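Internal QA ticket QA-208
Title: Verify multi-chain structure generation after dependency bump
Assignee: T.L.

Test input:
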Amino acid sequence: MDRKQIAEKFEDVWDEIRSRSYYIVGVLLLVFFPFLLVTPGSILSEPFSILNSFYSGGSIPILSDLFNLGQEIGLFGKNAYLLNIIALCLIWAIFAASWDFLSGYTGQVSFGHAIFWGFSAYVTFWVATGVPIGITFDPLDPIVLGIPILDEILGSLIFLINAFIDFIFIITNEILVFIFGSNFMRPPLAALVVGAFTSAIFAVGIGFIALRVKGPYLALVTLLLPLIASQIVVIMTDLFGPKYGIPFISGPFVVERISPFDLPPDLMGRASEINELNFFIFVLVIFFISVFLMMLVAYSRIGLAFQSIREDEDAAESLGINVRFYKILAFAGSAFFAGLAGGLFSQYLRFTGPSFFASSFSFSIIIMCVIGGIGSISGGVVGAFVLTILLELFLKDIFHGVQSLDLLGYGILLIVTLRYMPFGLARASKDQKKACIVGVLFAISWTIIPIGEGWGTNIIASLSSSLPLGTDVLSNILSVSFETLTSYMGKVDYMGQITSSLSDGDILMTLSFVLIFTFGLIASVVFFFAEIIGLFFMGDILGLSRSWTYEDLIKAKFLIYVAVGIPFAFYLPKAFKKVRLRFWGVWPSAGRYEPD
Amino acid sequence: MTKITNSISTDFLHREKWIILGIGSLFLTYIILILLVHDDSALRLQVILNGLVLSTIYSVIALGFSLIYGIAKQLKLSLGGYYVLAAYIMFFFIEVKKINTSFDNLGNIDGLVIFLMGLIPFFLIIMFAIIFWNIFNKHEFFYFSFAGILTITGYILVLFIKKLVNEGEITEGLFRAFISELLTWGLKDSLYAGTIIFILILTAWYLEFSIQRIYILSYILGILIPIFFFLNLPVGYLSLMILAVSLTSFVAMLSDRYLLEKVRKSHINVMIMTFSLALFLQSIINLIYFPSGGTELVSFGDLKIGISFPPIVPTTKSLRIYGAIIMEVKVIAFFFVIFAVILLYLFIWKTKIGMALRAVSQDEEAAALTGIDIRKTTAIVSAIGMGLIAFAAVLTSPFSAKPQWSPGMGWWILIMAIAIVTLGGLGSLPGSIISAFIIGFAEVIVSSIPDISAFASAIPLIIVLIVMIIKPEGLMGEKKELEA
Amino acid sequence: MTIDTISESTQTSKHVILKVSSLSKHFKGLKAVNNVNLSVKSGELIGIIGPNGAGKTTFFNLISGFLKPEKGSKIMFNGDNIVGKRPHKLAKLGIARTFQLVRPFKFLNALENTTVPHIPKNTYVSSSVLKNKATWSLIEVDLAEKKNYPAFILPHGDLKRLDFARSLAVQPQLLLLDEPFSGLSHEEAFRVERLIRESNNKGMTIIIVEHKLKILMRLVQRVFVLHEGRLIGEGSPQEISNNQEVISAYLGSEAKEYV
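Actual output:
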């Protein structure tokens, strides 16, 4: 190859990497995330396996300082709690991606995906803990109507149903014992996989129903399916356990050194703490494998066949695509991964119950996929992360104890997204994506900077006495910013203690200052008013501030800043361009042509 | 051509014959079951009456859903949200009526809020006045205002007359009692009654009735309302009900017009958007009513509000009919629903706007070409459909909400609507009514048999599943042949 | 030698590729296709004409497996009865069709559109070979430059050719074209006509439903006329344009002009 060809190849590769930069950053963040937490002295620095020792070997300087800063501000919870949240994000991400795999690619929209994850949750639980089956098993009680003929018929029918269910369970038991050995208590990974596979088989059945109905009719039917399932589960309590669900007596990841591949020695009376790091690693690996597999299929010719079904079923069929086969395949594949997510979720909660079939789970993933972008696996992942972090980290604390606040947050976010980014985050224009990231950076900066001891307590005091917020805030901002600035100069860190060296947190502070002062007065004014109005609305009108701690206040402010920062970051460059055009004419920008 | 029409009609009847036979035999089975299972004739009557009531409620809900699909071709999953919204608006109004608008509790923000809430009827009248001023010319404005004033003064007059009839003679005590009653609830009720007139006028104007007709309507109703009040009919309650229903319809219309703009083209996106709207409505209501979480409702100052069986229906008495016990409010609901369905029928088949709706349901593009405004039609149909739901909510939610009266009760209603409409066929109105009866009676009968009563709530879902497998387009839906 | 005589000379003693007996389809009392009997020899270029509503598209739907005919109908393809078989099976057997209104996969690009029909037959083939096959399908219809364009931005003429490319990719023995010339300009129609002739020369049997009689009559060898579901005429374009019944039902008095 001559030089030109090499240069071209390099360009191609570089383009590929650049277009995937978001993915790469995301993957790196996820993988190296626990480093932030495993600082010396933290509770998680117990090595248990290669992976764990990898993580506890050291910590990355800047990132862990960033993380500590966040912690000091109160933006995150405790170390372990945050790991749990990210693990939850990953579980939702698998679930959401599985929905997108089905509905985004084949166009068969399912409004009841929760049925697969609930089904798998039950199966996982059974396989992991062993369901009591045997002669004493009697799912349906005889029904007495009082009319002899009908009673006889009904009686025999029920007897047959009972016998059939017994038969199925005995057979399954024998098969599982044959495969896994006499002890029914299976390690979590095996249970998970069995759950996922049975979920896929179940989906084949559902797929046949789905073949008969199309479009919105399918959506309606799938809406109803989990409800039917939950009704059946609730009614047949002998089989499925009590109405409120069954707790896992064993946690699969207990504090002692147990890996996902070991047998839990005994199941009764365990300490019910989960080793968050181990669980996180487990979930992370399954996440990567799932997403990899899903992407593999989605970007292959099978994925193309799926898309052709979505676009035009009849045309696809006339071209030789066996539409029925691919539809069922999509259902089965999607259910497999949904089943993985469901099993993981039930292990995370250490609980299984009919509430797994709730519509809110089905709807949540749809919202996640819509926000992230339908028709792409990564859309679901992104949406899941955004929504779960929003919910768990922020909304739960701001809206203490309000029920169904996930719906509130999701609802608003969905309406906003559909209005401005109808194809989701993954397909938003470059401007919009940049605005989102910059907006979040702005929000972080503005949350970090005006921190000082005096200010926070003043805010709390003024909230609780229902005085208007405005007057104190301005003076506090100014005085505290000055304070932090001088403290930085004098090498005093933000908590008032003297440090002798320039820590990385200081670098961050400087960057934040630069970011803020670059956009100067406009930003300050915008954020200032946003904060006043937002806090007044949340605090006084909605009455939420009564249950806030200092951290909750910071979280609320952060949310307000994000909500204001993103549109701000979006419109600012445009305004700036207009101003530049007006006052300076077109700015020659190094040969690049920037059309307005 | 005649050859074809003949062959179509005979074949059609031939096909429908089986469905009619099937439905008929199903109901026959129901009757046999009732007769066999229960020996007590009072119990039998109970089952039949309960079935009737439940079926009519289901049919009105299904009608609303089916109407919106049939005409606007949108499957609006926000049904449950509007159900809940209407019920809570009604609840709000009834609680607000109890508020004493005195000036003492103006000390803090809470007190201010309560005071302002007590002034709601005045705000309403002012709002209508402003709207009317902007829409109508001076002439019409005064005519309509006069109709409203007529109602209000008539109402107050009747109040006075009633007090007079009570006391027997005109004394100072009479005046004092009259004034105090007027200030506590009389004035507000009269204002609410006046709003009925204004809502009616606005609706008639929006639906492009001729101005003379609107005049006549407003004056007739304006005189009728005080007369109804004189006859001890619950005009106050009625006006609140109409207000709640029309507010919900109005919100539905606005959301259809502004929220669903971008997503109108895609069925699935409409479904996603509308159910997120339902989620949003539910959580807003949750936030307002349960700010501290848990099951304690909000308290407006001293006014603490309990939760079980909120008083949003006019009576809580029960009637005995030949041994069967039925709640009075269910009977009222039954007749109201029949009245609403007849009104709906008249509207769709006998008015110009109804004809426009039917045209749009058959061919949207062709209708647009003849000058029908599709967006307006879609908005109207959303308002009517959700209005029916709001109607059902206001009348029946305390006793037909599952599992209990709470901001989450809308989801079960949505499920029922879907089940009924799936069984009956998505585009067909008579289908919805028939399947509402099928499912309603099935549910009541099953729940009356003691051993299997737990399955009662699963029945509609199982029926739907079976229908989906056997005949996906429902009883009366159109079978979709391949378009190619 | 003109192109027509070439195709005529290849028409000697070929087997019957499609034989339809007693084909009927009723829609709620309307007899859309009423007891149609016809047979088509392999390698022929056939036209089907008739007024709107005559049942032409229904006929195609029945043959391509999208509709099930009434009991008693028989459709023999290469000797096997294909009644009740699903369209994708028929595509495997060698029947391909296009639709009256173009039906591209809107949000996929042109290359992906032509890749789809290659998927069923090439399961063990590597993806680069698959891509080559798809690209070749595009080259055959002169759409190769637009291979990365999403289908929804392509103009109508290109979409018609894309449909054609897709159905060719199925490598059918029998190709059913539903109004391939509708909406095309003179030049585009000429291109499509050339494609049809080329495919027919390679041995493909092609049946065309079309209203543009000028093009059709000079293109095909035999014509079937459908009216109200029945076959009212059959023969060469010459014969058909002289057929009284056909003239009164469809062609009108300017029948002579079409030949």
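Spot checks passed. The first helix of chain B runs from residue 2 to 37.
Status: verified.
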